[in-house]
Design goal:
Layout: H1 16-22, H2 26-34, E1 38-43, E2 46-51, H3 54-60, E3 66-67, H4 74-81, H5 91-104, H6 107-129, E4 133-135, H7 136-152, H8 161-173, H9 180-205, H10 215-220, H11 232-262, H12 264-271, H13 275-288, E5 294-299, E6 303-305, E7 308-310, E8 315-319, H14 320-323, H15 368-385, E9 386-389, E10 411-417
Parallel strand pairs: 2-8
Antiparallel strand pairs: 1-2, 3-5, 4-10, 5-8, 6-7, 9-10
Helix pairs in contact: 4-9, 6-7, 6-15, 7-8, 7-11, 8-9, 8-11, 9-11, 11-12, 11-13, 11-15, 13-15
The structure holds protoporphyrin IX containing FE (HEM).
């Protein structure tokens, strides 16, 4: 009888601390060490199976084999996701809720958002011209918060923008944090849910009139599969599930600015670039730089993959960052090279910065089109609408911190409009 090959099993009681110390590279470090795209470890006191790569993503997105309910740790739900949102749903209820998100992220909405955003970027320049320097990450957060709320139909006073933007940002930052970072994210979420819940109630009662085509209206009056109206708190969670990630695109904008700074040849190309050049650059930023680290799901029924027996209820973690840097998929993955996207064949499982599979049928992010258009508009603004200097600063970022950013948050000085 042939000896059954063993899937590597990491020794030790629990590796949650290693994960929080190694950050984005936790899975990749072990995959490289064991030379296996699957290994077993213990995280948060539970046996966990870590997987990486295209084939791994393909099984992870098989909704016959995996479910999301019960997969996300409570701490992630209390900061990033919110309780009762689309991320933890399965089956027909999930698809029905997801349809709502897909309809709010279509090309019409993408265009609306990128136009609103470009106008806001441009109108902000005169203020910056009077300042010695600005921190791009902060400005991007505020501008995106203003843009997202205006687009969604959520009333937001100019005086409130900073505070609300910081709350959306803190929910994302709370994701990998313990102690103060976690608490900041949790408090920010409670405050935002109370605010948005109040706005939804005002729309439902008629106190606040909004256009029927707006995301706020759609969320307020969405009917569940059984015909009932969403609970106010859940409607708030879901509206936040659109506004928060739009604000989070500030991270990709900062990494885009960093890439333009580190690769002047790319900037040169985009100065006279067409849409395809912008597209390739944006895709490479989303592949190369770290943002979403891992995804978790639970096994729905027993099955075998790669000689490993997955048992119902097991926790499985898919490595996003590692798959986007998998040398079986990407030639020299740690090189920033937008041209790699020139002839690339469409594949739903090998490039997964915002998840894999078909977004209408599974959990892949519905907001990739929005993300790409917002990034393109912001890069166009940085390259073609303004001139600026990049003073000395620490632009390094740590792969150990989740989520991460260049330490200086990208400081710009001597900003002026291009004539
Ligand atoms: C900064 C850019 C973004 C990143 C890095 C990102 C990343 C992700 C990732 C990794 C997932 C999980 C996929 C999965 O569970 O399989 C996800 C899901 C989701 N994203 Fe995004 N996202 C971004 C922008 C957006 C935008 C602009 C929207 C607004 C429409 C959005 C809304 C959502 C929603 C609602 C889900 C849950 C989908 C589901 O569970 O079915 N995201 N995103």
């Amino acid at each position: 009888m042939p000896i059954k090959e063993q899937v590597p099993h990491e020794k030790g009681i629990d590796h949650t601390i290693d994960m929080s110390q190694e950050g984005y590279l936790f899975i990749k470090n072990r995959v490289d060490k064991y030379k296996s795209d699957i290994f077993e470890t213990h995280l948060l006191g539970e046996k966990s199976i870590c997987i990486i790569g295209e084939e791994a993503a393909r099984i992870f997105y098989d909704s016959e084999l995996f479910q999301r309910n019960g997969a996300a740790p409570k701490r992630v739900q209390k900061t990033l996701f919110g309780m009762g949102g689309v991320q933890s749903m399965d089956g027909a209820e999930h698809l029905h809720r997801k349809h709502l998100f897909m309809s709010l992220a279509n090309s019409h909405h993408q265009n609306q958002l990128s136009k609103l955003l470009m106008d806001k970027w441009i109108s902000s320049v005169s203020k910056w011209e009077d300042e010695e320097e600005i921190v791009l990450f902060d400005e991007a957060k505020y501008i995106l918060c203003w843009t997202a709320c205006n687009w969604a139909g959520v009333p937001l006073l100019e005086s409130e923008v900073k505070e609300r933007a910081e709350d959306f940002s803190a929910m994302v930052d709370g994701l990998g944090g313990i102690g103060p970072r976690y608490w900041k994210g949790k408090i920010a979420r409670s405050r935002a849910e109370e605010w948005i819940g109040g706005v939804i109630e005002d729309v439902r009662s008629g106190k606040l009139k909004v256009e029927e085509s707006s995301p706020l209206y759609a969320m307020a009056f969405h009917r569940e599969l059984d015909g009932s109206q969403m609970d106010t708190q859940i409607a708030a969670v879901e509206l936040i599930n659109i506004i928060r990630p739009i604000v989070a695109i500030s991270t990709f904008i900062i990494f885009s600015a960093l890439a333009l700074h580190d690769h002047p040849e790319c900037k040169e190309k985009l100065l006279s670039g067409n849409d395809k050049d912008f597209e390739m650059f944006v895709q490479e930023v989303r592949r190369y730089y770290p943002f979403g680290p891992y995804l978790g799901a639970r096994v729905k029924k027993d099955f075998t993959w790669n000689k490993y027996e997955f048992k119902k209820g097991m926790l499985v973690i898919l490595d996003i960052y590692g798959t986007n840097h998998d040398s079986r998929i990407w030639d020299n993955p740690f090189e920033f090279r937008p041209e790699r996207f020139k002839e690339r064949k469409h594949n739903l499982f090998d490039f997964i910065p915002q998840g894999g599979g078909d977004p209408a049928k599974g959990h892949r992010c519905p907001g990739e089109g929005i993300t790409i258009e917002i990034m393109k508009a912001s890069i166009d603004f940085l390259i073609n609408k303004i001139e600026f200097e990049v003073p000395d600063q620490d632009l390094s970022y740590s792969l150990e911190r989740i989520p991460t950013l260049p330490k200086s948050r990208f400081i710009m000085s001597n900003i002026r409009r291009k004539v």
